[in-house]
Specification:
- By secondary structure, the protein is mostly helical.
- The chain has helices spanning 16-19, 22-36, 42-59, 63-71, 74-87, 103-129, 132-142, 153-183, 193-199, 201-224, 243-265, and strands at 92-96, 99-102.
- A two-stranded antiparallel sheet has the order 1-2.
- The longest helix is centred in the middle third of the chain and has 31 residues, at 153-183.
């Protein structure tokens, strides 16, 4: 289960998406997620699926590796689908006992499931194709205008980047702790859902200790190197838009226009 969490991981490759400016990928991810909530029919989801399939193909990230991340949120996905399936009012499709399922609930559950899957896959592509350093630089550039109103742009970008970078590290640490406790007789897999949840409690203390230790080591390392964020710092690889980035923006505009057209005419 822990190994299935792929959020925050970077997959090295030589694809077109890896070479794009991180600002393009950030804007593209935001637009893709936002316009998922504007889709009003199945034609829109088919269009979004085709667009996502094209992006996955261009990223050269193995589909199995991408889909593996869905296992970690399978419970949340099933919960959201079940909630929409059983609690959406409308015309009854069938019922068993006190449980009543409506046609509107079935449609809502399908659309919600598709929306969550596309959202997770679309956001994962960004982290798979963007290093933490690129992500930090891209966020800082995009939020640059906020400096005029005294928003600590660099610090916010750095915190978000470090948080994403620490996710796979903490997952790896959790896996090591679980294996160590299983070697000492701990059982994390037998019993019902509540029992399995309780068995994970002993993991929290060593995991929090490890997390605080890593955070302290990182802070000391940054301080020892006289790190001062923000003004006056230069970039080893300054961000500059290229022709391929402009083409990517054009494709994003076409995607947005396609969603709007589908909602209006289909």
């Amino acid at each position: 289960m822990i190994r299935d969490i792929t959020i925050g991981q970077y997959y090295p490759s030589n694809s077109i998406l890896h070479k794009l400016d991180p600002r393009v990928k950030l804007v593209g991810t935001i637009l893709y997620i936002v316009f998922l909530f504007f889709i009003q029919n199945y034609y829109g989801y088919i269009f979004a699926a085709v667009f996502l399939g094209l992006i996955i193909t261009l990223s050269k990230v193995p589909v199995k590796f991408i889909l593996r991340g869905l296992k970690a949120v399978l419970f949340l996905l099933l919960f959201m689908v079940a909630f929409n399936l059983f609690f959406t009012p409308g015309n009854e499709a069938f019922s068993f006992g006190f449980i009543r399922v409506t046609w509107e609930g079935i449609e809502s559950a399908i659309l919600m499931g598709l929306r969550l899957i596309f959202l997770l896959l679309g956001s994962s592509i960004m982290t798979f194709t963007t290093t933490p350093n690129q992500l930090t630089d891209g966020l800082e550039k995009l939020m640059g205008p906020l400096k005029k109103i005294k928003v600590p742009v660099h610090e916010i970008s750095m915190m978000m980047s470090i948080a994403l970078r620490f996710i796979p590290i903490l997952m790896e640490e959790t896996d090591k702790i679980m294996k160590a406790q299983m070697a000492r007789g701990a059982d994390f897999e037998s019993g019902g859902l509540i029992k399995r949840a309780k068995s994970l409690i002993p993991l929290l203390v060593p995991l929090f200790v490890s997390a605080f230790r890593r955070a302290n080591d990182l802070a000391m390392a940054m301080e020892a190197r006289c790190y001062r964020g923000g003004e006056g710092r230069t970039k080893m690889k300054p961000l500059k838009y290229a022709g391929k980035d402009m083409l990517a923006y054009l494709i994003l505009i076409m995607y947005v226009a396609g969603i709007i057209a589908i909602n209006k005419y289909l």
